[in-house]
Amino acid sequence: MEDLFGHSYPSTNKTLFADIILPVPIPRSFTYSVDPEIQDEIGIGYRVMVQFGKKRILTGIVAKVHQKAPEAYKAKPILDLLDDFPIVNALQIKFWGWMAGYYCCHIGEVMNAALPSGLKLSTESKVQIHPDFDLENPSFPMDERELVILEALEKNPEMNVDQLEPLVAAKDLHKIIKSLLAKKAILVYESVKEKYSPKIETRVRFSPEYLSESHKLNELFEKIKGKVKQENVLLKYLQQVPVFNDQALNEQGLAKKVLTDAGCSSSSIDTLVKNKVFETFKIKISRFDPIKVEEKSIELSQDQLEAYESIQHEFGTKSTVLLHGITGSGKTEIYIKLINEVLDSGSQVLLLLPEIALTTHLVSRLQKVFGDTMGIFHSRYSDNERVDVWQGVLSGKYNFIIGVRSSLFLPFDSLGLVIVDEEHESSYKQFDPAPRFHARDAALMLAWLHQAKTVLGTATPAFESFYNAQTGKYGYVKMDKRYGGAELPHFHLADILKDKKKNLLKLDFTRLMREKIQEALNNQEQVLIFQNRRGYAPYISCEECGWIPECEHCDVSLTYHQYQNELRCHYCGFKEKVPNKCQACGSEKITTVGSGTERIEENLSLLFPEARILRMDLDTTRSKYGYQKILEEFGSGNVDILVGTQMITKGLDFDRVSLVGIVDADRILFYPDFRSGERAFQQITQVAGRAGRRNKTGNVIVQTRRPDQLIFNHIIEGKYTEFYQQEMGERRQFYYPPFVKNIKIVVKHKDFKITETAAFQLKNLLVEIEGRKIILGPEKALIGKIKNLFHFEIWIKLERSTQAQEHFKHEMAQKISELHGDKRFRSVRFLVDVDPS
User: Which GO terms describe its biological process (predicted)?
Assistant: First the structure.
C-alpha cells in the first residue's frame, strides 16, 4: 500500500478505506470502504467506480489508502477497481491540490479538467426481464407491444433502450417501459462502460499449411485459376509480403485495408478466409501516423550558441529563465538543443504552445528531429487520441510532449525541462469552466514539483515575467538579432482620418495600404491582413432612427455574418436572419457599421480582383484540420492574401510574406483594460514579425486614427524596455499587477435584483476580512447579461505575500459559503477568477 506521498506499508487484514477524488464541485474527497478482494491491488492513482448519492455512478481517483473510518457517515463500498496499474501519480495529485487552492476551486473540478473524457466512465440505460417474472403466466395482462418487448428480451438477456426503439413506435417506448416496470415484468438499470477504445486493425495472412510445403501455393493458384478477383488478392498480398524470401514475414500479415485500397475485392478476401486460405486476426495499432526522423543534429549560429550558453549559465542559480528573442531570432533551434540534452539524461520534457494548430511550422520542424518519440496533445484530438497520448506518457513511449495548456495534466513522473513558448499569450489563460488557471504560471509550479528547469520564450514578454527577470527572480537572456542576418521589417503609419478628409480612403483601406498590397502582388509576394474581429460587420443599424439589433439573451449587439446572411451573438451563439426593415420605425434603410474579417475579405476582392484571397478566423477553422488546410494552401503559394484575426499573429513562418497590414490598430489599443497597451504592443509586434522573415526586408502598414500615440514609436523602434518602464510607473501608482494580486468575483443570476443584492452582500462580507486590500465594485459587468444571466463584478487587489493571499482566499470561500446558506441566494453563482486577465 502507498499513501499520497508514495510511502508504502504492508497490507493487513484490517478494514481499509480509500479517500476518493470525484469530479464534483465539492471541497473535499470522499471516503469509501475497500473490499478485502482488492486490498492488495488498490493504491494511489488507480481509477475506481463508486456510487455517489442514490443514483449516480462516478469515476474517481484514489488519493489515499488508510484504516480510519469516516465519522460523519457510513462508508459505501468501492464498486469496482478499473485499472491494473495507476493512471495518475502522487505528483499529479499534489499538482491538482495546489491548483485547487491557488485558483479557488475544488480538487474534483481540477480532476475533471485533468482526465481525458475517454478515461471517465459513461452510463447507458439497460433493460432486462425481471428475475421473478413468468412470461408464460404473467400476473397482469400484456398488450401486443409489451409482448414484442418481452419476446425480444427473452432472446437477448439485456438490451439498450435504443435497441428497443425499432421494435415499437419511438413515441410509445417510454410509456411501454413504464407500464412493464409497474407490472414488475422488467428491470431498468444503468450499465457503466469505458469510453476509451483502442484502435483495432484487422489483418490477414496465409494459413500455415500453405507455407509448410512450397507446392501448396502452386496448387492453390491452379485451383482458383480463372477467378481473377481471388488471384488479384493473392498476388497483391505476395507483393506486399514476400513470404518466399522470408516465411516469418507472414506472421505480421497485412492490413485488410491495404488490400482493399489497392483495388482488391472485400468479398474475395472474405471468400479466401472462408476457404481457410487466409486467416484473420486483430491487432491494436497507434492512431498516429509514423514520423520519419530527418534531422540528426542541430547546428547553432554564433548568436544562438551564446544564448544557449547563457541559459545554461543562468540555470546554475535560477530554475526559470526568460528567453527574450525578437521574432525570427531562432529560438526553436535553442529549444531543440535543450530538449535533446534533457532527453539524453533520461528525463521528460514538456513544450507548451498557445495553440498547436497555429504553430504547424514549429510542430513539423520538431517532428523531423524527434519523430515518434514526441507526443502531441491538444484540444482538437478525439477522446481516444488523447487517451493514447496519456498512456504513451505512462508507458514511456513519449518522453517529450508538445501541447496546449491541457498537457500540463499528463502523467509525467520525471520532468527535467518545461518550455513555455510565446509565454505572453493570453490564450494560456483558461476562463471557463474551473479551474480558471494560467498555463504559464501553472507550468512553473509543475516544474517546481518535479525540480525541473523552465524556459519562458517570447519576443514580447508579459510584464509580470519581465518584472521577475528584472528583479532577479528569473534568469534573463536576450536575442536581438534575426537568424541568418535577416532584417526587421519597416513600419509605416497610415492616418485613416487624414485619408478620409482627402477622400483617399477606399473600402476601409488607406492609399498607402492599397499601394503596398499592389506592390507585393506585382512582385508575386504574399500579404497578411490582420483585423481582430470576425464576421462581416460588428453590427447593423437603421439609418433613420439608429436601431441596432441585440441578442435576446445577452447585452450585446448581434454581429452581421454576410455569407450565412444572419446576425449572430458571439457570446451565446444565438442567431437570426437579417431583418428586411427596422423593427423600431419600419424603415428599410438598414446599413452595416464597422468591418469584420468577412467584410475585409470582400473589400480586398473588390480592390484586387486578380488576387487569390483566403480568410482565417473562428468561422473558417471550426473543423479538426481547418487551420492546417488554410495554412497549407497559403504555404504552398496558392493564396496571395490571407485575412485573419489574432490567429495569424502566432508562429506563422512563410518565406514569401513581404507585407503585413493592420487594418485598425486603435481597436486593440483603446480597449477598456489595464493591459490594453501591453496587449497592443504584443499583438502588433508579433504580427509584424511575420513579414520579411528571410533575405528580404518586409513592410508593416499600421492603420490608425491616432498616429501620434507614443506606443507606435515604441513599437516601430523596438523599445520594449522603455514602454515597459512607462507602463509600470502607472501600474505602481494605481495598484495593478505585478505590484498586487488581482481576484475577480463574478456574481450571476437570472434575476437582476437578486444578482445586485447578492453582489453587495458579498462585498460587505469581504470588507470584514482582515488584511491590506482594495475592493472595487460591485459594478454591472461590461457585458451585463450573457445567456439570460445578469453579471455583477467585484475586483479585489491584494498584497502579493503568499500568507496574505492564502488567508484572504480561505476567508473568501467561507463568506461565499455563508451567502449560499441564505435561501435568497442558493441559486446565485459566484465565480472566482484569480489573475483574471
Answer: DNA recombination; DNA replication initiation; DNA replication, synthesis of primer; double-strand break repair
The closest of 47, 57, 24, 51 to 124, measured between CA atoms, is 57
Q: Are residues 170 and 217 in the same domain?
A: no
pLDDT tens by residue, 821-833: 899 999 999 999 9
The candidate with the shortest Cα–Cα distance to 467, out of 329, 338, 316, 320, is 320
Residues 505 and 584 in one domain: no
- Average pLDDT value for residue range 634-661: 82
pLDDT level of residue 702 (50, 70, 90 thresholds): very high
Same domain membership, residue 111 and residue 51: yes
Cα(506)–Cα(809) distance, rounded to whole angstroms?
54
Residue 141 preceded by cis peptide, ω within 30: no
The answer to the question of whether 105 is labelled as a binding residue is: no
- C-alpha 310/C-alpha 609 separation (Å) is 51
**Cell numbers given for 108:** 474534483
Q: How many domains does the chain have?
A: 7
* Same structural domain, 365 and 498: no
Q: Is residue 294 one of the residues assigned to a domain? A: no
Are 583 and 605 within one domain? no
- Report yes or no: 691 and 682 within 8 Å, Cβ to Cβ: no
- Are residues 317 and 350 both part of a single domain? yes
Beta partners for residue 419, in sequence order: 351, 455
Is residue 695 included in any domain, yes or no? yes
Report whether the peptide linkage leading into residue 433 is cis, meaning its omega lies within 30 degrees of zero.
Answer: yes
**Domain coverage including residue 129:** 123-194
Sheet holding 159-160, edge to edge: 159-160, 121-129, 186-194
Distance CA 437, CA 98 (A): 11
Strand partners, 567: 560, 576
Determine the Cα–Cα distance for residues 202 and 103; give it in Å rounded to an integer: 47
pLDDT winner (highest mean) among 550-554, 627-631, 668-672, 730-734: 730-734
Q: Give the helix/strand (H/E) hosting 123.
A: strand 121-129
Question: Residue 480: CB partners within 8 Å, gap ≥ 6?
Answer: 325, 326, 329
Question: Of all residues in the chain, what percent carry a pLDDT higher than 90?
Answer: 46
DSSP-derived pairing of the beta strands 641-644 and 613-616: parallel
Same domain, 819 and 757: yes
Whether 545 has a binding-site annotation, put simply, is yes
Q: Calculate the CA 160 to chain-centre distance.
A: 33
Residue 468 lies inside a defined structural domain of this protein: no
CATH number of the domain that 141 lies in?
1.10.10.10
Q: Which of 99, 120, 141 lies at the terminal end of a domain, its last residue? A: 120
pLDDT in tens, 131-175: 888 877 888 888 888 888 888 888 888 888 778 878 876 567 777
User: Do 613 and 514 reside in the same domain of the chain?
Assistant: yes
Spatial distance between the Cα atoms of 534 and 511, rounded to a whole number of angstroms = 24
* 708 part of a folded domain: yes
Mean pLDDT of the chain: 87
CATH number for the domain spanning 106: value is 3.40.1440.60
**CB environment 399-409: b (16+ within 10 A), e (fewer):** bbbbbbbbbbb
CATH number at residue 752: 3.30.70.360
Contact assessment for residue 480 and residue 310, using Cβ atoms and an 8 Å cutoff:
no
Residue 10 has pLDDT above 70, yes or no: no
Helix residue ranges per DSSP H, 418-481? 439-450, 463-470
Which DSSP symbol is given to 464? H
